[in-house]
Each structure stands twice: as structure tokens, then as C-alpha cells.
Design brief:
This protein folds into two domains: 120 residues, DNAb Helicase, Chain A, CATH 1.10.860.10; 265 residues, Rossmann fold (3-Layer(aba) Sandwich). By secondary structure, the protein is of the alpha/beta class. The longest helix has 29 residues. The chain is built from 16 helices and 13 strands.
Length: 417
């Protein structure tokens, strides 16, 4: 996205800002670097520097600039305010014309022409020819092929990656199950897989249910094979303590950032994501779990929880798209699973407050462990299900569905290939 293509000098309210942007455009089309030095020189040469408030005003604008993350929001605000000024001017003209004895058809024609003029000139209708879109798409495919630019984070669960092709930019991935199935354990197993295999991928974890001590203890169990209960009570043998001490040094190097706030609004979540991405180069965000996020100071009045969850899941998807990172959100399933007979395998429709979550998600993974319900075999077939779990790919926007089996080590609550 080029700002130069979206903004025009006339969009700015202050005359000095119009002049500054006009000269920024001039530098751009002259293939000159757009910086303070070149801008001051060009304005001075045309006797415009004093009109805009001199170098002091330009330095003031530079100091106000923080980051590019909100650039789209700033552009939208400038355009919106400009269009509102146009509408105000049109409304004043319309009031004056209405007091004049003008034919009503002429007034209506005048309104339509002016509104069409504003819409056509200043609102981006996003219509593009297929030739343009094919060229752009092919260029991206070509770049990915020759330069390997495509950024995908493998889960390192081999069979899962074969189907979903890893975690991709802008994707919202939902991991859902009933309590006790191991949603958090699966997410932590996934974190452990990624960080151990690739130290360059920093991960941000928002844990609204578990404290940081519980999370770190879980990660220690994964890497030491010492049970959670033993670590919790510190009932360790000398050998176990030495193993623990050795692995702690490795764990300290993990690029993992944890926020264990017990309360989190969608606005706070977005702001924290921005800090994680900007300050710590985080490339994957995980939320445990979605239903614990809230909407503070909302103008909306919700008649039920489903409406609120709908706004939350939609916003999480927007955040994933805006920051171009995959976001994994853990979610609860409804009690309908337990009420059903048979094997109690979860379905997509079991997502609690499911409507919008199901719609917004790019991938939905449902966790199922028949052993939890007291079953000894998979679907009454002579295949023992002890220590095994099934990941049901219930939705995959850009690919196929499927069921894969993983090992579940109950002692340390860990999922493995």
C-alpha cells in the first residue's frame, strides 16, 4: 500500500499540511529520498518554508510520528474528515437552495449529482480488473517460488501440517474441545514444538485462565519428563533436580512472551499485540481462551453473549489480517457433546456461541480423546485408544478436511506425533 496513491493534498484541513504533502509528492515523483533534509531544501527553494512554519514545524511533525502500524487508521481518519467537510458544505448549500423557490426535482438532481461526485472522486470502490489481479497474484506466486518468501509456521505435527500446510499469515485458527480434553496442553505442545525447532519464531501467549507459573511448569514437564505434580510439590530426587537445572537454562532462551492478565478487553488485546509485534518481533499469537475476552466501554448493548462473542471473534480476525500474523484462539465446546450418545465425537456445531466463530475462523481443530469418556477402543473397533488423541480438522477455508491421530502422554499432558 502506497500512501501517495490514497491521499491528495486537498484532503488536509490546514493549508500548511496541504503544501507539505504536495512537496512530498513532488519528491516522490522526482525519485528523491523523502526525508527532513530534502523536504526543507525543496520548500526553501520555492519560498514555501516560512509559509508552513519553518523547520520547527516539520521537526514537530517528525516527533509526533511513532510507527507505521496505525498508518491505515490515520489515512482513513484524514479521508473521513475531508469527506465530512464536503458533506457539511453540501448540506449548507442544500439548506440555502431549499429556502430559494427552486423546483424540487432540481434540488433532488443536485443532491444526487453532488453525492455521486463525492463518492466517485474520494471513496475507494476497490474495483480492479482481472488483468490487474492476475498479474498481482502471479507476481506473488513467482516471488514465493523463486525467493521462498511465503511465511508459514509449521506446527511440527507431521500429519496435521500435511493437511493444513502450517500456520499461515492472517489466519484465525480455533482449537476447541470440551473441558479435560487438553486444549491448553495442545497449544503448549504446539508452542514447544515451534520454539524447539525454530528459535527465530517468537510467540505471544495470552493466558486468561492459567497463571504464568502453571504455564512455565507445564513447559518444564515437557522438556524434563518430570510430572507436573512432582514439580508442583518440589518432591524431586537428586537426579530429577539436576535434569531440571540443566533444562531451565535452555528454557530461558525460548522466545516466548506471556501475558497472564485475568481480564482482557478486545481493545487491550489489540494494543498488546501491536507491542509484541513491534517490540519483540512476535510472529504468532495464542489466546487461551476466546470466551474470556470481553468488550469494555462498548457502545453496543448486547441482548445475549453470542452477540458479544460475534464482535470479539470478528475483531480477532481483523487483527490477524491487519498485522499479517496467524492467531490461534482456544475455545470451549457446548455441553451438547456430553448429551449425545455414541462415541461423543465433537462436531463443528458444538462450538459455544458458534455462529460467528465458525464463520470468522480459517481453520477449526476439534480435540477428541475417547479414553476421557471411558472408552477402550476407537469407535468400537478393535483398536485401543489408550494414550491417543484425535485432531478433527472440522473447517479448513483453503484446503481439505480430515482427522489425524496424535499420541497423548497423560503423565505430562503432552501431545506428540
Amino acid at each position: 500500500m502506497k500512501v501517495i496513491d490514497l491521499l491528495k493534498p486537498e484532503f488536509f484541513y490546514k493549508e500548511k499540511n496541504k503544501i507539505i504533502f504536495k512537496y512530498i509528492i513532488k519528491l516522490f515523483y522526482e525519485y528523491k529520498k523523502i526525508n527532513l533534509l530534502n523536504l526543507v531544501y525543496t520548500l526553501k527553494k520555492d519560498n514555501k518554508l516560512n509559509i508552513i512554519g519553518g523547520e520547527h514545524y516539520l521537526s514537530y511533525l517528525m516527533q509526533k510520528f511513532t510507527s507505521l502500524y496505525n498508518i491505515k487508521i490515520y489515512i482513513k481518519k484524514i479521508i473521513d474528515k475531508f469527506i465530512l467537510r464536503k458533506i457539511i458544505k453540501l448540506s449548507i448549500n442544500l439548506i440555502n437552495k431549499s429556502y430559494e423557490n427552486i423546483d424540487i426535482i432540481n434540488i433532488l438532481d443536485y443532491i444526487q449529482i453532488k453525492i455521486f461526485d463525492i463518492t466517485n472522486k474520494y471513496i475507494n470502490n476497490n474495483i480492479k480488473s482481472i488483468k490487474y489481479l492476475i498479474n498481482k497474484t502471479f507476481k506473488k506466486i513467482k516471488n514465493n517460488y523463486f525467493k521462498k518468501k511465503l511465511f508459514i509456521i509449521p506446527t511440527y505435527f507431521k500429519k496435521l501440517d500435511e493437511i493444513i500446510l502450517g500456520l499461515q499469515k492472517s489466519d484465525l485458527i480455533i482449537i476447541a474441545s470440551r473441558p479435560g480434553m487438553g486444549k491448553t496442553s495442545f497449544a503448549l505442545s504446539l508452542i514447544n514444538n515451534i520454539i524447539k525447532k525454530n528459535k527465530n519464531i517468537a510467540i505471544g501467549l495470552f493466558s486468561l485462565e492459567m497463571s504464568y507459573i502453571q504455564i512455565i511448569t507445564r513447559l518444564i514437564t515437557f522438556n524434563t519428563n518430570i510430572s507436573y505434580d512432582k514439580l508442583k510439590t518440589s518432591n524431586l530426587t537428586k537426579l530429577e533436580y539436576n535434569i531440571l537445572n540443566k533444562n531451565i537454562k535452555k528454557l530461558k532462551k525460548y522466545p516466548l512472551f506471556i501475558d497472564d492478565s485475568s481480564s482482557l478487553s478486545i481493545i487491550e488485546f489489540k494494543n498488546k499485540c501491536q507491542k509484541l509485534i513491534y517490540n519483540y518481533k512476535v510472529k504468532l499469537i495464542i489466546i487461551d481462551y476466546l470466551q474470556l475476552i470481553n468488550i469494555k466501554n462498548s457502545k453496543f448493548k448486547f441482548t445475549n453473549r453470542e452477540q458479544e462473542i460475534s464482535i470479539i471473534s470478528r475483531n480477532i480476525k481483523y487483527i490477524a489480517k491487519e498485522f499479517k500474523i496467524p492467531i490461534i484462539a482456544i475455545s470451549q465446546l457446548s455441553r451438547a457433546v456430553e448429551l449425545r450418545g455414541g462415541n461423543k465425537r465433537p462436531l463443528l456445531t458444538d462450538l459455544r456461541e458458534s455462529g460467528s466463530i465458525e464463520q470468522d475462523a480459517d481453520i477449526v481443530l476439534l480435540l477428541y480423546r475417547p479414553e476421557y469418556y471411558g472408552f477402550k477402543y476407537w469407535d468400537n473397533v478393535n483398536l485401543l485408544c489408550s494414550g491417543e488423541a484425535e485432531i478433527i480438522i472440522a473447517k479448513h477455508r483453503n484446503g481439505r478436511l480430515g482427522n489425524i491421530k496424535l499420541k497423548f502422554i497423560n503423565k505430562i499432558a503432552m501431545f506428540k506425533n
